[in-house]
Predict the structure.
Amino acid sequence: MLLKDRVAIVTGGARGIGRGIADKFAQEGCSVAIVDVRMEEANRALAQLSKKGQKVLAVQCDVTDGRQVQGMIDEVIGKLGKVDIFVNNAGVAQTPGRSTPDISEEEWDKILATNLKSVFLCCRAIIPHMKERRYGKIVNISSLAAVYPPGETPAYCASKAGILGISNELAVELAPFNICVNTILPGMILTEIWDDVIPPGPNRDGALADLSKRFVPMQRIGSPEDIAGVALFFSSDLSAYVTAAQIIVGGGMPLKFFD
C-alpha cells in the first residue's frame, strides 16, 4: 500500500494509460479522481475502481480550459480533502505521414492545447495547494517522440518535447517546497491512441506485432500497466529524493533504431 491515504488526480483517466495508472494507484491505497471529457467511459472506470475499496471520483473537464481546470481541482479538494499527486496524462495523437507544410493551424493549435497547454493549466491550478501543504508529486506523461521523433508528426513531437521543458522548469521552481516533478516517456504502448494511426481491424494486431519485433528489443508492445508501475514509483515516497527525472518506458527503445 505505497499510496495509503494519498489522493491523486489523473487526467485522461477514463481509458488507456490514464486508466492503467488510476487502477494501480487504487490498488496501492490511493483515492483517485478520474478526470476526462468522456464521462460514459469515466463512469465505467469509476464503477470498476470503486470495487477496490478506495474513494473514487469521475469529473468531467476539458483540460484546455483554465476555468474548467480550476473548477475540477476545487471539486476534488472539496470532496476528497486534498490532492497529493497530479498526473498530467490527457493527450491526443497526430495522424502520421504529413510534413509540417501539410498541418493546418487549427490542428496544430488543438494538439498543442491538449498535450501541452493542459499541463501548464493543471500545474498552475494545483501548485498553490501543494505549496501550502509543502508536499506534492506531479507526474507528466510525455513520449519517446519528444526526443526521438518518428517522422512527420511535428505537432505531436513539439507538444511532447514541450512537456520536458516545463517539467524541468517546475522541478527547479518547486523543489524548495518538497514538490517533485518527474516525466515518463512512453514508447510503443497499446492504447486507443493507436486508432488514429492504425485503424482497428483484423490486421491491427499483426501490424503492431511486426512493429514491436522490428523496433522494440523486448519484442513486445507495452501496456498501460507498464507505465503505471513507473508512475507509482514517481508518486510514492520511494522517489522522495527524485525530481526532474525522465524515464523512458519503451522495452529498450530507442536502441534498436540504430541497428
User: Anything to note?
Assistant: The mean pLDDT is 93. DSSP finds seven helices and seven strands in the chain.
